[in-house]
Design brief:
This protein is α/β, with parallel strands linked by helices. It has a single domain, classed as Vaccinia Virus protein VP39 (Rossmann fold, 3-Layer(aba) Sandwich), CATH 3.40.50. Helices cover 43% and strands 22% of the residues. It is built from 10 helices and 10 strands. It starts with 7 loop residues before the first helix and ends with a strand. Bound molecules: S-adenosylmethionine. S-adenosylmethionine binds next to α1 and α3.
């Protein structure tokens, strides 16, 4: 259920606008990071028999592309036309559709597997999306998703959020959405999956590392390539933004390793089965 203080439509529109503008820079800055969970995510939903897979919130189509390499039959859906256009360009042999994770345009029991790589934390109504994933899976099918660990471990977020807390304009308000780190909590993942009808829940954490060319790139990545953290940055007045940018750059410099940065960004890989 959507918490009463969240206007699901307003948050949905805010996210959609963010992703429509962020597709190129998301691919540029986040692609090599979010690709690191694809192997564990696909391994976690490796259902016996059958190989159709729905890649929900597919973005540039990374997961669908790896599924195809494994010989599976993927379809990707994303609500952003810009993301779908990029996915079609990058992976011309794969079907990508425009669609909403919270109201999937597929028949019941249409897929053997469904996955959502770093999509769940962007949804206005994540529980509705998990119910939809359950609906479109056949009995025995598997669903998997990924989410960032909390910011005390996923340090790119800690750096950006601290800079905003210390130097951001407290008057800047975005349309409220569900807690960004809700699915960093193993018990909450298990609870939501069970409440939507799934069983056999597994949750594993993986130590992703964000390699960036320079400290300035951490700011650029969030500012240009993300919807929610980027939205908060883009809404800052110029003087506050300059301070936030400097603070992010300064903190990021501590992760310089040779000619690039290596920022720890662990993530949870969560899977479950439809009985
Ligand atoms: C962080 S990106 C993840 C992209 C990709 N799955 C990956 O592995 O990098 C989040 C994606 O979720 C999509 N998205 C957000 N809300 C959505 C919704 N309600 N329905 C479908 N896609 C959505 C965005 O357009 C964006 O492409």
């Amino acid at each position: 259920m959507t918490p009463p203080d969240i206007d699901a439509n307003a948050f949905h529109e805010f996210e959609l606008d963010g992703w429509q503008h962020a597709s190129d820079d998301y691919h540029r800055y986040f692609g090599s990071l979010t690709m690191q969970t694809i192997g564990p995510l696909l391994d976690a939903v490796a259902a016996a028999g059958g190989a159709s897979l729905l890649d929900i919130a597919s973005g540039p189509g990374y997961v669908a592309a790896e599924a195809k390499r494994r010989g599976w039959a993927p379809v990707g859906i994303d609500f952003s036309e810009a993301m779908v256009a990029m996915a079609r360009k990058l992976h011309p042999g794969i079907e990508f559709q425009i669609g909403d994770a919270e109201a999937l345009n597929f028949e019941d029991a249409a897929f053997d597997r469904a996955v959502m790589n770093f999509g769940i934390l962007h949804l206005a109504q994540p529980d509705a999306a998990v119910r939809e994933a359950h609906r479109v899976l056949r009995a025995g099918g598997a669903f998997g998703f990924t989410a960032w660990a909390k910011p005390d471990e996923a340090l790119g977020f800690r750096i950006a959020l601290r800079a905003l807390e210390d130097f951001g304009d407290p008057g800047v308000q975005l349309p409220p959405g569900p807690p960004f780190f809700r699915f960093s909590d193993r018990e909450e993942c298990a609870r939501v999956l069970a409440s939507c009808g799934f069983g056999d829940v597994t949750v594993r954490q993986f130590p992703l590392v964000w390699k960036l060319a320079s400290p300035a790139d951490l700011f650029e990545a969030f500012y240009k390539g993300s919807a929610r953290t980027g939205g908060l940055l883009r809404a800052q007045p110029p003087a506050a933004l300059a301070k936030v940018r400097d603070a992010i750059k300064e903190s990021a410099a501590a992760y310089q390793r040779g000619d690039h940065l290596e920022i720890p960004m662990p993530a949870l890989v969560v899977s479950a089965r439809k009985a």
